[in-house]
Amino acid sequence: MKRRERVREELKYSRSNLKCHELIGLEVKVVDHSDRGLVGVDGRVVWETRNILVIESSGREIKVPKNFAVFSFKLPGLGSLVTIGGEELIANPEERIKNCG
C-alpha cells in the first residue's frame, strides 16, 4: 500500500478510532443515559469539554455529560453509525486526540 493511501486509510473514522478524531461537527444521538431526559437527544456536536458534549438540537444547545451515556455517531462519508460509551470519550479533546498517535 502506498504511503498516501495508508495515511488516507488511517484518517477515516471507524469504531476503533472514533475517540482519536475531532467530534465537533459530527451528527450524534444519545441512545442511553442515566438522566432519562437526555435519551433521544440528537443533533450535531458543537462543542466538547473533558466531561461534556454540547449538542445542537432543534435550535437549542444541550449539554450532555459523557459519563453514564451511550452515544451513536454518524460517521462522515459513509454515514454508518458507531455506538460508543461516553466513558471512552472522557478526556480533554486535544489530549484524547494527541494520545492516540
Low-confidence stretches are 5-10
What would the average pLDDT be, to the nearest integer? Answer: 87
Distance between the termini: 20 Å
Output the CATH topology.
SH3 type barrels
The main sheet comes to: 6 strands, antiparallel
Class inferred from helices and paired strands: alpha+beta
In the CATH scheme, the class would be Mainly Beta
How are the strands ordered across the major sheet? Answer: 4-3-2-1-5-6
Q: What CATH architecture would you give? A: Roll
- Percent helix, as a range, is 10-25%
What's the name of the CATH homologous superfamily? Ribonuclease P/MRP, subunit p29
Give me the strand/helix succession.
HEEEEEEH
* Structural shape: globular
Total DSSP E strands: 6
Number of domains: 1
What does this entry look like structurally?
The chain has one domain (3-98): Roll (SH3 type barrels). It is built from two helices and six strands; from the N terminus they run αββββββα. It has helices at 3-11, 93-98, and strands spanning 27-33, 42-48, 52-57, 60-65, 69-74, 81-85. A hairpin with an 8-residue loop joins strand 1 and strand 2 (42-48).
List keywords for this structure.
SH3 type barrels, 2 helices, 101 residues, alpha+beta, six-stranded antiparallel sheet
